[in-house]
Amino acid sequence: MAVIWLGLLPRLAHWPPVADHVRRMEQGGVNPAAMFYTELERLPLRPDWVPSQIALWQWPAAPRERR
Amino acid sequence: MDPLAAAGPSPRGGWHEDTAAILVGAGLVALALAIGWGARPDADPGSRKAHPKGWPNPLTRSIDKPQTWESSPAGALIDKGGKPVTVPILLGMTWVVGVIVAGTALRRKGVAAALPGALALALLGGLAYLLAAQKVIHYYNLEYPLWALLVGLVIGNTVGVPRWLAPSLQGEYLIKTGLVLFGAEVLFSRLLELGLPGLLTSWVVTPIVLVATYLFGVHGLRIPSRSLCMVISADMSVCGVSAAIATGAACRARKEELSLAIGLSLAFTALMMVVMPPFIQWAGIDPIVGGAWLGGTIDATGAVAAAGEILGRDLGDKRPAEVATTVKMIQNSMIGLIAFAVAVYWSGWVDRTATPVRRSLAAEAWDRFPKFILGFVATSIVCSWLFTRGAEGALWVDGVTNGFTGRLRGWLFCTGFVCMGLQTVFRELAPVFVSGRPLVLYVLGQVLNLALSLAMATLTFGWLFRQGGGP
Fold first, then answer.
1. Quick one: B254 and B280 in the same domain?
2. Host domain of residue A22
3. Mind listing the pLDDT tens digit for each residue in B228-241?
4. Which of A5, A11, A50, A56 is best to mutate for the B interface (most B CBs within 10 A)?
5. How many domains does chain A contain in total?
């Protein structure tokens, strides 16, 4: 396990496709290991561009403040 | 003993394991709510902009987990802002010890005998979290349950489980307590966030795929274990590991069945996260429909966010990621109802056919019903109700779940999986793996999920949503 975690995986992190994926995720502030939505870096809230007439529930007080 | 099976009554007349899980879990949620209310901010308490992750909860400072690291594990002790998190990590382990001790005391078992093992298990949970925090592992969604199981399996099948650890091996209790805490994060009001298109994509497709896959596994592939079929169907159609844990506990799946389902889910999640975004672009699928498709099909929530980010970044459009994560969140919010339905179905139907009925159907079903599910549903209902009591209520609940209960739930699941690994013998896993039928069930169920989700996403986000005006 030590060989894999301290030797192989750190090297793999520098392999261009993997490094590119990691960089994209870090830049986007994404937590791909989230098991549930509450663990995401940004809570998914109904986007502003979704027309209110098809949304069945709206933010109680200040919908424009959602972002 | 099977970790997810209901424990019998304590010989010394203590509380039942499920009752202990409810008391400890609900007590912790109540404590976090009370402390969160006491520390509510004076300025802009109803502003999401001022408090994007909810009201700051003082308990947040008492728990954290190892941070992502690349080449030196020492990096796990520093957060993204450069702040050391050694103390909160150690305190996180202390919470685990506290939960084990509280459960042992409530069940009137020997607290002193359980204490050394509880400390060792908390350390092993920390080790599993450390392995999961390595950058490559973290960013390819190979979540901590896999490494927690691995740590337990390696130790249990090499050096063996020492006798002093045995009184603390309470994996089922830790997972049940974690699920009661988890209930606070399962908010029914979230179901309505994306309106009719989101509901149709999640609510119509998910139950159809769940039931069809389960029935195909039982009757088509003739897999002998119904609980294995249910756990695979749930993690594939709902939301991966968290759904597997909740339904596995509801249908009393065996530990090796849960391990297999989690392994399958994580392997396919990593694959789909990488393959689906370029496929959506190659096939020329509408970005919003593509986002909804990602949200409806990829098992794990984090992987959905990652795939949405890849798709959106390539297209220069943030909407696919928003739709993907919101559709997934709606699916996440279904866990409570699905776990409850599975528990009712199992206690009222599946178990009933296996054993002769001696009393009324309702009494028999109630005896078999996993009572901790009531705690899970109760915390979910209470927190959902608070969440809908205006902006302040929503921020209050978000602060509790983001800052404290979510983190503690992670530690309890992680340590629970270490216990499961320690109690699993490799040769017990072999018969489950070698038949290959669980893999066939997962793949065929996922094909159905992909087809139905794409059809529904096209119908709703490609047509109904357009009717609503579009972005």
1. yes
2. 2-65
3. 999 999 999 988 88
4. A50
5. 1
Q: What ipTM was estimated for this complex?
A: 0.80
Q: Are B345 and B327 in contact (CB under 8 A)?
A: no
In a domain? residue B359: no
Phi then psi for B84, rounded to 5 degrees?
A: -70, 140
Contact B325 A40 (CB under 8 A): yes
Lowest mean pLDDT among B85-94, B125-134, B283-292: B283-292
**Distance from CA of residue B44 to its chain's centroid?**
32
Q: Are residues B111 and B70 in the same domain?
A: yes
Mean pLDDT of A35-61: 62
Higher pLDDT, B9 or B424: B424
Domain that holds residue B266: 188-332+435-471
Encoded amino acid at B351, one letter: D
B29 and B156 together in one domain: yes
Query: Are residues A38 and B185, on separate chains, in Cβ contact within 8 Å?
Result: yes
Q: From the candidates B175, B194, B288, B383, which should be mutated to test the interface with A, based on the most A CB atoms within 10 A?
A: B194
| Alpha-carbon distance values, B389 to A5, B65, B382, B384 (Å) | 47, 31, 11, 9
- Residue B231's identity, in one-letter code, is V
The number of domains in chain B is 2
Q: Are residues B110 and B177 in the same domain?
A: yes
Within 8 A of B71 by CB-CB distance, chain A residues are 6, 10, 13
Q: What is the pLDDT of residue B112?
A: 92
Same domain membership, residue B23 and residue B136:
yes
Q: Which residues have C-beta within 8 Å of that of residue B215, sequence separation ≥ 6? A: none
Q: Do A62 and B391 touch (CB under 8 A)?
A: yes
Question: Do residues B170 and B219 share a domain?
Answer: no
Residue B346: inside a domain, yes or no?
no
Tell the residue number behind the tokens 């997972």, with chain if given: B175
**Considering only residues 36 to 55 of chain A, which have any Cβ-Cβ distance to chain B shorter than 8 Å?**
36-40, 42-47, 49-51, 53-55
From B270's Cα to the closest Cα of chain A, the distance in A is: 10
Q: What tens digit of pLDDT does each residue of B2-27 get?
A: 434 444 445 557 889 999 999 999 99
